[in-house]
Design a protein that fits this description.
By secondary structure, the protein is an alpha+beta fold. Helix content is 37%, strand content 22%. The chain contains 15 helices and 18 strands. A hairpin with a 2-residue loop joins β1 and β2. The protein is elongated and about 95 Å long. The two termini are 42 Å apart. The structure holds adenosine monophosphate. The site of adenosine monophosphate has 17 residues, from β8, β12, β13 and α11.
Length: 431
């Protein structure tokens, strides 16, 4: 069988079995479910509530929320127009969550809103290992709290997820960005410092010198990193109260036993970011080493139309990167059929079909063959599906009103009267 159609490059199908595409292992749907349930569990323990927003949003929201000067908005949006309205497939979920918070007045629920999400995002990037055009993010947004405990708890909850998967070859970097005024004073000194070296900068960095100088600090190029060694440091420009907040966050992380490295070069290019910024990376992932990133964004709400500032902090993490860092052997085994009903002959097939319903109503996971195959082929199928028991029903069993029940692992066979079947199987399936 075949088709001339293929999934779009940079996207992938999640199938019942894991498979490899190029050098990447694509996890099975059962593995995705297992990972999502661990994430759900950590989110529950940290008292986050789930929020789900649409996968497309007004382009203007994303342009403002992500920032006009970013690569995402300039080059990577899947945008389309319909009846004079501009839409975009969401490239991230922070701006949509803040939009939903403001639109539905979630502040009126009282207290701090601690929200989490899991879902697909879309960016027209060049596909490569760990970088896709449709990928999945999970993350949290804590809205309405400026307390340093919100920063520390957000970071701790992120680390708890990687801990839950036994991923410990990670590095957490943190920094404080202060407020925009400090950053603009800093940027102007940074530009003064870098301009004499403009000829030595890469094309990208030279462009950034004009558009978004802070991003130059992200450079991965050795000679640029050397150049930056004597550059001014953002932390020196930050107001005392922002530095005090940073000290408090670090102290709280120490109290929670969360290890971190301070990195004065860790920045965000956008004005609405304030104070705390952090990133988690796993050196073992190679080029796309970022597992997650986040920070405080006290000025985003106003950027997207709020008449009041709304303090907030959050992070976003890549699911595919989590899978790359993960040992899938540690995930729980996928659910398999409790029982496979094998039939010999038409009467038996009819009995089997009816009985699937009876057993399923009792909560059992029940499989059977619907291709009318030989008993041998049905037994092979029961094996492939790794059923715990197989019921064999033929003319003799119908007459005796008792099924032959085979325990697949031991090969043991028992006669069980039809009237006792449900109890027999439910007792053992839940044991
Ligand atoms: P960002 O919103 O760019 O900070 O991304 C947050 C996280 O999402 C990153 O740390 C990655 O783990 C993941 N991520 C971002 N872009 C992609 C992509 N194109 N493919 C896969 N994962 C991505």
């Amino acid at each position: 069988m075949s088709t001339s159609f293929q999934n779009i490059r940079g996207t992938f199908d999640i199938l019942p079995d894991a498979y490899t595409e190029g050098e990447t292992r694509i996890a099975s749907s059962a593995e995705w479910q297992a990972v999502e349930s661990v994430i759900d569990d950590v989110m529950r323990r940290y008292n986050y509530e789930e929020i789900r927003t649409p996968i497309f949003e007004p382009t203007e929201l994303v342009a403002r929320g992500v920032g006009q000067n970013t690569d995402i908005v300039q080059k990577e949006m899947f945008a389309f127009e319909r009846s004079d309205t501009q839409y975009v497939l969401r490239p991230e979920i922070t701006a949509p969550v803040m939009r939903a918070y403001l639109q539905h007045h979630l502040d009126q629920r009282g207290g701090v809103q601690k929200l989490f999400y899991v879902g697909p995002c879309f960016r027209a990037e060049k596909p490569q290992k760990g970088r896709y055009r449709q990928f999945h993010q999970f993350g949290v947004e804590v809205i309405g709290a400026d307390d340093a405990r919100a920063d520390a708890e957000t970071i701790a909850s992120m680390m708890a997820i990687y801990d839950a998967f036994g991923i410990d070859d990670t590095r957490l970097r943190i920094n404080t960005l202060g407020m925009p005024a400090a950053r603009s004073a800093y940027v102007s000194d940074l530009v003064d410092y870098l301009e004499p070296y403009a000829d030595e900068l890469s094309d990208t960095s030279r462009r950034r010198l004009e558009t978004n100088p802070l991003r130059i600090l992200d450079t991965k190029l050795d000679h640029e990193q050397d150049l930056l060694r004597d550059a001014p440091i953002l932390t020196d420009y930050v107001r005392d109260e922002d530095r005090a907040h940073y000290e408090e966050v670090k102290g709280l992380l120490d109290e929670l036993d969360v290890a971190y490295d301070e990195d004065p070069h860790l920045v965000r290019g956008l004005d609405y970011y304030t104070r705390t910024a952090f990133e988690l990376e796993s050196p073992s992932l190679g080029a796309q080493s970022a597992l997650a990133g986040g920070g405080r964004y006290d000025l985003l709400a106003q950027e997207i139309g709020s008449d009041e500032p709304v303090p907030a902090i959050g992070y976003a993490a890549g699911m595919e990167r989590l899978f790359l860092a993960l040992d899938t052997d540690r995930l729980p085994e996928p659910d398999r059929p409790d029982v496979f009903l094998a039939a010999l002959g038409d009467d038996a097939a009819r009995w089997v079909f009816r009985t699937t319903q009876t057993l399923r109503r009792e909560g059992l996971h029940v499989a059977f063959d619907m291709k009318g195959r030989s008993l041998k082929a049905q037994m092979r199928e029961a094996n492939r599906q790794d059923a715990t028991y197989t019921l064999i029903i033929g003319g003799n069993e119908l007459e005796a009103e008792a099924a032959t029940v085979k325990h697949m692992e031991s090969g043991e066979q028992t006669e069980v009267p039809f009237a006792e079947l449900t109890d027999y199987l439910t007792d053992r399936a839940t044991a």
